[in-house]
Amino acid sequence: MLICRCNEVSKQELNALIKKNRGITLEKIIETTGASTKCGRCKPLLQKTFEQLSAKYPPASQLNLQF
């Protein structure tokens, strides 16, 4: 599924980026992918997808690790 048609940024690409870089900011994602930098129509969908995936892959500091 494409999130940003102008820059061809897919949900799968966002998923991989957020999973690999837990705690990444939306601003860094925009800078890295270029999503929402042309027409901006995808910004609400980008924001929503970012929030969903960030909740799925929280920063390592927020994981409840027990040893």
Describe it for me?
The structure is a single chain. The N and C termini lie far apart (38 Å). α1 (11-20) crosses α3. Helix content is 48%, strand content 7%. The radius of gyration is 13 Å and the shape is elongated. It has a single domain, classed as BFD-like [2Fe-2S]-binding domain (Arc Repressor Mutant, subunit A), CATH 1.10.10.1100. The protein is mainly α. A two-stranded antiparallel sheet has the order 1-2. It has helices spanning 11-20, 26-33, 43-56; strands at residues 2-4, 9-10.
Secondary structure blueprint with pairings:
Layout lengths: L1 E3 L4 E2 H10 L5 H8 L9 H14 L11
Antiparallel strand pairs: 1-2
Helix pairs in contact: 1-3
Q: Can you tell me the number of structural domains? A: 1
Structural class: mainly alpha
Return the CATH architecture: Orthogonal Bundle
Mean pLDDT: 92
Q: Summarize the main sheet.
A: 2 strands, antiparallel
CATH fold name: Arc Repressor Mutant, subunit A
Rounded to an integer in angstroms, the radius of gyration calculated over CA atoms is 13 Å
Assigned CATH class: Mainly Alpha
**Termini gap:** 38 Å
Which bin fits the share of residues in helices? 40-55%
Q: Please count the beta strands (DSSP E, at least 2 residues each).
A: 2
Keywords:
67 residues, mainly alpha, Arc Repressor Mutant, subunit A, two-stranded antiparallel ribbon, 7% strand
Q: How would you concisely characterize the structure shown here?
A:
With 67 residues, the chain is mainly alpha-helical. It contains 3 helices and 2 strands.
